[in-house]
User: What shape does this take?
Amino acid sequence: MANKRYGMVIDLRKCAGCHACTVACKAENKVPDGIKRTKIIEEETGEFPNVAITFRKHQCMHCQDAPCVKVCPTKASYHTEFGTCEVDPKLCIGCKYCVHACPYRARTINPENGLPEKCTLCVDKLAKGELPACATTCIGNAITVGDLNDPNSEVSRAVAKGARPLNPEWNTKPSIFYIWNRR
Amino acid sequence: MHGEVLWNVYIAIYLFLAGISAGSAVLAAVNQLFGIWEEKVTKAAAYVAPFPVMGGLLALVLDLSRPLNFYQVMLHYNWTSVMSWGVVFLNLFPPVALLFAVSHFTGWFEKYRKALAVAVMALGVGIGTYAGLLLAAISANPLWGNPVLGVLFLVSALSTGVCAAMLVAQFVFKVSHQSLKGLAVVDSTLIILELVVIAVLLIGWAVAPTGGKALQILLAGEYAGIFLGGVLVFGLLVPLALNLLELGAFGKARHIPAVAPLLVLVGGYFLRHVIVYAGQAIYPLLLG
Assistant: This one.
């Protein structure tokens, strides 16, 4: 049986921009003041008069071909057995090269422990059969998490129906997909 | 938050000091192998080479957000990371450069001096080049993601290294005016090369899809003053003019002691400062 590769599909049609995911993530992961692992970015699309504002949940994209993993000199940034990206505190020297390398700008430095701070997809909760904090709290049920290697999972079916990662042209093979609401 | 500086003056200072070491090591090795100028030039450059980079390494450790873990970078290597290659060069360069300097100071192992010169030259070129490629590997950064930075950092390392050695050769070893003039020719050539490399970089940014941000911040934005004034005018053009004056390119040669090499050194620092800071200013984090 193939390994699990956890991924997330975010349905932007259902996102109201309420920031509950941001808050739930901070509480769950005890993220210090001033930094976040995930946040809502408001993006304007279209041209007047056909314009819209999209709320997009931004976070680590858990790339399969991850620039952060490639540049880490000690291999402290690595892929877990579930295909998510994580940082090993024992190996991390705090050189910040990964923070510079992330094209999604999804890492930052935790001022308390010097570690790169970023989404882990709550992989420990997933392993126990629970959902990430952001997914459980989402008021619109916009966040789906599952196994991208299982063609019958909800996330795989959403990807098959056209959910796309942000900037797929960067060829980093993200594990976070969006159902865009652009008409 | 936005435009947060993660790599600050420590990194700029490190890149500057490592460049001086690399450049003076290459100068010492070249004179050792080809005997272009008197031996005092080799000595001056060889004595300079091991030390700036050691200060630079201290700055590098101070920059880390987990400094007590720094030894992990010497135990674990990732060959897809330019930083790991840098660690290899930085592990080898100081001891080899120190041996080379000790050999000249004490007269020990004279037989191996040429071999040491080849080794220290290769490592010096490695350090000079990797420093630029470290930034160029961040390919998504509009300013850093340009491999020509590897050439720029190497040429600037050679230039600042030659100038540091020139100052020591002039004031400590009292080398002949003939040798100083020779070094001024080398210095001028490197300055001209550096101007060409900078022109290539600017054109590279101009034609790259996202390079406009890099051009804007360097030529008209926040860092234009230090780039145009500190790097281009006072770091390259003025010392070039002073060198040419000294060499008699404009009629009678006039002796202008030490001003040109000092300006090149200051300009060398500004170059690294501007690239490190401007690259971060135009490439903000989203989750800071």
Notes: The mean pLDDT of chain A is 95. Residues 20-29 of chain A form the longest helix (10 residues).
